[in-house]
Write a structure and sequence with these properties.
Blueprint: H1 9-30, E1 36-39, E2 45-46, E3 49-50, E4 52-54, E5 58-62, E6 65-71, E7 76-79, E8 90-98, E9 105-114, E10 121-133, E11 136-145, E12 148-153, E13 159-160, E14 165-171, E15 175-180, E16 183-189, E17 198-202, E18 213-222
């Protein structure tokens, strides 16, 4: 029986080569970072991912919709996704409310890379933190890649506790900046390589230290550097005037 080819052997070979050359672009696109919005209006799923919940964080009603409230002692949420994995530039925004009487140093959002072979956490990570100073708070942002890392902490820029704010970290490929509302808090150079897949924690650092007391409403992860005019807006009027 004779086998008839749709393509001649030469054309079939050329087609196979072309497909292999295109494969990185075709298959890589499925794993390319994309803009994600995580809303904290439930505990069992965040951003479409099933969660692990520690303690008993509460769903609360706020002027801007539902949010998750953490007690600063033993409550947190873990999500099996690193939403900025693969991003060479990014904007990471969180709408949250830091409450009074929390610990002096708190980690409220942590994105953590994991080793693909072992599943263990690496040293590459991104964090949002706060420090409590004289009854007010200041923003602390951190990002690391190999031996390069950058901490942005300015305790001279203090904000009242118990109010809603939007905080933002922007990396443009060379410089990391952080903001409270549209106001720049700090900036510094950083050699940050795209991170591998991993997981995230909200309400505590990924290794369960430095618990956060307050509430988280939503987060947005964008794989490009946004200008302040493009930042996420609060869903409605924001009390206090400094968070939007």
């Amino acid at each position: 029986m004779k086998v008839r080819f749709l393509f001649s052997p030469n054309r079939l070979t050329a087609f196979a080569v072309a497909l292999l050359c295109a494969a990185p672009a075709v298959f890589g696109q499925a794993n390319a970072p994309r803009t994600q919005i995580w809303r904290f209006d439930r505990l069992d799923r965040i951003g479409g991912f099933a969660t692990e919940v520690l303690g008993r964080p509460q769903i609360i009603e706020t002027p801007y919709g539902k949010a998750v409230q953490f007690n600063g002692v033993d409550e947190a949420i873990f999500v099996p996704d690193h939403p900025l994995a693969g991003a060479s530039t990014y904007t990471w925004e969180v709408i949250f409310r830091p409450d009074a009487d929390g610990a002096p140093a708190q980690r409220f959002f942590h994105l953590q890379e994991q080793d693909l072979a072992t599943g263990q956490d690496t040293n590459n990570r991104m964090l949002f933190e706060i420090r409590i100073v004289n009854g007010q708070w200041c923003l602390d942002s951190f990002a690391s890649s190999g031996s390069s890392n950058r901490t942005l902490l300015n305790c001279k820029l203090l904000h009242p506790l118990g109010q809603w704010y939007r905080v933002t970290a922007v990396f443009d490929g060379h410089v990391l900046r952080n903001y409270v509302g549209d106001a720049l808090q700090g900036e510094g150079p950083l050699d940050l390589k795209p991170q591998l897949a991993g997981h995230s924690s909200i309400g505590v650092r990924i290794n369960k230290v430095y618990w956060f007391k307050g509430a988280v409403l939503m987060a947005r992860f964008t794989p490009r550097a946004l200008r302040p005019s493009e930042f996420l807006k609060m869903p409605g009027r924001l009390g206090g005037g400094s968070g939007e």
